[in-house]
Each structure stands twice: as structure tokens, then as C-alpha cells.
Amino acid sequence: MQQYSSLPDQNSLIDATPKLLTTIEQLRAHLWLESGLNQLQSRLNDYLLSACNTVPQPGAAQAEIFQTVLNEINSTVNGSNLALTNFAVGIALFQPQETFATVCYVSHSPSLNSQPLLLEVLTAEKKLLLKLQEVIELEDLEHLENQQPPSAWRLADDSGSIMGWLLIAVAPLSSAHESLIESQAQLTQFMSRSANYCTTALLQLKHILSWQQRYQLLSNSNQDLERTNQLKNQFLANTSHEIRTPLSSIIGFTHLLLAPGFEPTKERQQEYLSIIQSSGKHLLALINDILDLSKIEANQLEVQCELVDVPLLCMNVLTLVKEKAANKGLKLCLELEPDITTLVADPLRLKQMLLNLIFNALKFTSEGSVGLRVACKGIFVHFTVWDTGTGISPENQVQLFQPYFQIAKAVADGIEGTGLGLAVTQKLAQIHGGSVTVESEVNHGSRFTLALPLKQEVEVGGAGEAEEAAEAEGAGEAEFSSFPLPFTPSSSVEILLVENDLPNADLMQIYLRKLGYQVTWVKKATEMWEALTQLNPAVILMDVYLADENGLNLVQQLREHQQYRTIPVIVQTAMAMKSDRETCLAAGVNDYISKPIDLPLLASLVAKYSKAPKSIGGE
After folding, report:
1. pLDDT digits (tens, 9 = 90+) for 513-532
2. 4-aspartylphosphate: which positions carry it (predicted)?
3. What are the Cα distances from residue 374, in Å, to 259, 309, 354, 391, 409?
4. Which of 23, 98, 317, 402 is such that its CA lies 20 to 30 A from the CA of 122?
5. 241-255, 515-529, 545-559: which range is least confident on average?
6. What is the dihedral of CA 261, 265, 268, 272, to 10 degrees?
7. Domains (ranges, CATH) in the chain?
């Protein structure tokens, strides 16, 4: 009977043991490899996840990934049975189009005691140092990448652009462990895959940063839109309030005067009409300030810098406000250093800035004095407007130059203002290369200093040109001519008024006829040509927007007719922008006045161009 033994054959057990040991060593090496790579991947994922929730700087984020890779390689190799007593890993970076790279990140085994390792370049008789800030030629890096086993692995993105090189320097393994990873194959595979993980992490970081940048831009854009929308709403609310306040007075008192059966005394009637006129001027000042501010913020406001006679301009400014100061019982003072004679600036805008500051001083001063002091400080001229008024608290000074800002107490006390004067003044000063500053103490007055450079980088015209430009632009100013001239009849002078709007036509006819002129009114171009066959007007007052033609086209047509070529034409129009005046003059008109019409200025222009005596005046 045949018997079988259940014990293994002794020879077969002996033969199987080496194979089993080999398999165990291979598994151990494989587990070491996968464990190290998993740990590296986990660390990189953790960092990328944290980067999604923050906004890291691109350079710092890239450095963090590089350092993470090196630290994990160092930890994995040190914790293995590879017996690598001497090794170091590093990353070299280079700038595009350069022929060398610089080692920027290094991690090494503790046994090195901070001593650098040498990388052997087999095809060249030289050794490369692997240490921080060491320079390595790209040609050598490419050779290290191609040698067997490799000592360098490139970190390239999808397009092939190299972001850096992962390097390793390793001392030979001890003979007791050579069987673990033959020819360092396992270590080479670990380094290669670590390089791939590093490259993937860098690309993901790039996408994260790109997404964060787009998100930040979108977020900033949304914030800008929200801020713009808030400013628009604030602008509309403030403008609506500021416009409706004077309009309420104009409409209300007009309705009162027109009410059937209401017969106020002459004094009351004059009072109501004064309120209507004051409210109208306030409304015009608001519109001019809004237009100026909008043009400044759109970089469309141009300044015409010329040689300005400083003493003359300051006297003119104080002349314009002396009546208002006298009505409040305030003393006006002018202190002017004798060596200050001229300044290069836009005379019209300089006058506007000074008037804004002085009118503010007069509004907030109930007793005492208001003054203007002009002094030279280095390359700047300081125009200081001071007063003995209520003063301004530090809290209000912070917001003083913000558009539409008004001091709450002033509003409660009924002090009129648009809240735009100081904002416009500051921006005009900045356009001139200067500034506006304030010093104030509650109940102890205020000092506003307008500092302007003595010279501007512009071609300078004569002082006469500056005065002529200021006079021509005066029609668009909020302040009307305030000094009536003596009345002189001019009954022999004929005026042809071409005006589309009936109320404006009535206003100018009544005013000019009171001055003694003969006025013929037409409202269309066809009527104008018909009237010219019967009249020989000394001056034509021309509206721009007519029912059947553009007034500027009519002016050009008049200049083409021999018999009408020399008739002076003055345009009166609601076109009040700075460029509008230039457009009108370019069309061939002699002069320009903007609506609402400044009646004394209109009389002065008509007298000038009709050759009548200039001593005609307002009511």
C-alpha cells in the first residue's frame, strides 16, 4: 500500500526560501515607495486645499510647494532601510533664456552636518556642488537628467516650459543593503514620481492662483460697481434736494404773485422778487458746480494758463464780494506782499477758486472780518482766506472737501450751499499743480490756504489776453454783473432778435427796449431772412436752436452774403460748456453769452457792437 507524507520535501523548502525572501524584500521596497509617495501627495493636497481658502503670494506659494517636496523626500529616505548615510536633495531654478540655474532649495541627511555633497558628471571631468545658491549650467543639468541612473528631473508644465529641476546627490549604499534596491532603481523611481507630483502641484497652484486672481478682479469690479451705484444714488439724492430747494422758492413765490386777489405791497413784492432772483442764482451756481465737477472727474476740464496780474485779480475778487460783506457788517481786508506781481495760472479758474473760498468765509462769519492774504513761499504763492467766523470742528474738516458735504449745523441754521464749492476748488488747485488746506478751531475762525506754483509748463499769453478771456467767459459764471451803469437812450439803434423761446424773447425785448433800443423779434430762420430785407440791424442776437435751422449755420450763411457780412452777431444760448463758446466763435459770431441771460452783460455787449455809448445799464 502506497503512503503519502504531508510534510514538504526538504529540498523544495530550501529551494523556495531565497525566492520568498526576495519577494518579501521587493514588497517591502514597494511599500516604502508607495508609502512615501502617498505621504508626499497628502502633504501637497493639504497645502493646495489651504491655498484655495487663502490668497497666497505666487512666489511664496511656489516656494512652499518646493520646500514641502524636499522635506517629504528627506523624511522618506531617512526613514527607510536604504542605509543612505549621505544624501541631499535640492531644486534649482532658472530665468527663461538663461544658460544656468541656481540651487534655491536644499534638504539633506543629518549626517552631512551641513556639508554639501558632490554630484558627479560622468562625461566631464568636473564635480558639481549641491548647496544653496550654487550655480549649475543647464548643459550639466541635462546631462544629469540623461545619465543612468539619473540625478536630475525637470519640472515642466503642459507647454514644455521648465519651472525648475529636482536634484539628488547620493553616497553609495552599504553592501549589506545593496540587495534591497539594486542599482538604486527604487530610489530613482521614487525621485521621478516625486518630480511628477511636484509638477502637478505647481500646475494646480497656477490654476488656483489664476482662479483667485479672476475672482479677486470680479470681486473688486463688483465692489466698484456697488460703490459707483451708491455714489450715483447719493449724487441723485443730493442733487434732487439741492435743485428742488431753490425751485420751491421760485415756483412758490411766483405762484403767490400770480394768485388772483393777492395784492402785496410794493415792498413785499420786491422782497418776493429778490427771493426768486436769489434762488435762481443759487440754482445756476449748483448747475455750474455740477458741470465743473463732472468735467474735472472725466478729465475733460481744460485750463488756459496765462500771465495773471495778481494784485488786479485780487482787487476784482474783493469788489465782487464787498456788497455782500457790507450787508453783513463785515470788514474786508487785503494783505498783498509787494514783490508778488504776476502768476502763471488760468485767470478765470483762479478767480473762481478765490470766490468760492471768500463766499464760504462770508457765509460762516456773522461779525468781525474776512480777509485775503497773498504771500510767496518758495516756488508757490499762498492765497490765504481767513475769517473770524464759527470755525470748523476736526470731524467736519476730514470730510470738508467731499462733494455735497455740508456741515450739519450750517444746514440747520439755514445757510445755503451746494456742498460742491470746496470740492471743485480742491480739484482745480490740483489741476494747477497746487493744493488747498484748512486750519480751523471752533468759535475762533478758519484759514483756507490755496497754494499754487508760480509757473506752469504752458505757453504764456499777455495779461491783456487773460483779461479778455476772463471777460468773454464771464457770461458763464454764476455771479451776474452787479454794478448797473447809467442809462442812456439809444432809440436810433435797431436790434434783430432771433430767439426760439418766447419767455426769453420777452425778457430781452422788454429790457433792451427800456434801454431805448428798437427790437424786432423773429423765432425762425425764414422770418429772419424776411426781416433782413426790411431792416438794417446794428446787431443780431442769435439763438442756436431754432425750429427750422441751426443758428450757427445761419451765422455762416450770413457771412457768405456781402450785405450781411459785417453785421455783428452775438449768440445767446443755453450751450454753456467751455467748448461750446469756442464752437460758436469758430462759426463766425462776434461774441457769446450763455443762458440764463445776464442782462447788464447783454447790454454791455450790445453797446459794444452797436457802436452806441457804453454807458448804458441795468435796472
Report:
1. 988 999 999 999 999 999 99
2. 543
3. 52, 13, 11, 21, 30
4. 98
5. 241-255
6. 40
7. 10-213 (3.30.450), 300-476 (3.30.565.10), 494-610 (3.40.50.2300)
